[in-house]
Amino acid sequence: MKVNLSVITLSLGLLILAPGCSTSKMKNNTAIEGREWSLVSVQSKDGSTKLTPAEDQQPTLSILQGRVSGSAGCNRIMGSVVVDGNKLKFDKVATTMMLCPDAMNLEDAVLNVFGLANNYKVTGTTLELKKDSEVLAVYKIK
């Protein structure tokens, strides 16, 4: 009986401590993932100006489980993304092929960010997509 009580006590102790050990190794990207982000501003494709969307051309961005989706203003976007801490890399981002003459400059700038961004910063409800220290696009939680 003494041995069984010791085994039970040890087992309970391991059950209590084990979850704490395993979660410390998990990556936590919840700051960027699982939210819908709405574009505030984006650097023009040539980098010379900051563009802001019209209300009827609102680009959005969602990242969840290695996938990116949303809107570039006119066309839907979809692709993959690797998020590791504050680093990210978009890959194989594709769009639908609608033509929206009034939105194409903004859309080209939004799509350009996916090829350049290599990190991000979330502050409160604001997301910055960056290349090194340069802010390429600013989103807010929708």
Automatic annotation (TrEMBL):
Keywords: Stress response. Residues 31-138 form the DUF306 domain. InterPro entries: DUF306_Meta_HslJ, HslJ-like_sf, Hsp_HslJ-like. This is Heat shock protein HslJ.
